[in-house]
Write a structure and sequence with these properties.
The protein is 53% helix and 17% strand. By secondary structure, the chain is α+β, with helices and mostly antiparallel strands. It folds into 2 domains: 41 residues; 76 residues, 2-Layer Sandwich (Alpha-Beta Plaits). The chain has a 4-stranded antiparallel beta sheet with strand order 2-3-1-4. The chain is rod-shaped, with a radius of gyration of 29 Å. It starts with a helix and ends with a strand.
Length: 139
């Protein structure tokens, strides 16, 4: 009886102590596979944190309060689509920025202007790069 108990304890110790050979034979993940999976999870979490930080920084950019008219290149509900649009429209006029309007949509703008004439001139330039650009008047 003592030998059986000792054998069961020894087998349990080998099985649960991390012996990779036994784990491999029992089709369980080895310590190397577990470490690789942990690294992947950590990398994915770090990438998500970086993306969220970028999103928060980008979407929190202040709207140019002195501007009345904006050249708009997109209106979205999704933060991810806002970021994609901002990346797509870099270098057209000004640095793209986003702001939220009362309806809840987030507008992506590539320029803010004091007068309608300035906005229309910029809009004509923007139409060459994005035929769906339009002018928005801040309320």
């Amino acid at each position: 009886m003592d030998k059986k108990l000792l054998a069961v304890l020894a087998l349990s110790a080998l099985l649960f102590s991390g012996c990779d050979w036994i784990r491999e034979k029992l089709d369980m993940p080895t310590s190397k596979q577990i470490a690789e999976k942990k690294e992947k999870i950590i990398a994915a979490q770090q990438a998500a944190v970086k993306k969220d930080t970028l999103k928060a920084d980008t979407l929190a950019a202040p709207v140019k309060t002195e501007a009345v008219y904006y050249v708009i290149v997109g209106a979205f509900n999704s933060d991810e689509l806002v970021l994609l649009s901002m990346e797509k429209h870099k270098g057209i006029l000004q640095e793209p920025f986003a702001f939220k309007i009362p309806s809840g949509l987030k507008l992506v703008s590539i320029g803010g202007y004091q007068t309608l004439e300035e906005a229309r001139a910029a809009h004509q330039q923007a139409l060459k790069a994005d035929p769906e650009a339009w002018v928005y008047k801040k309320r």
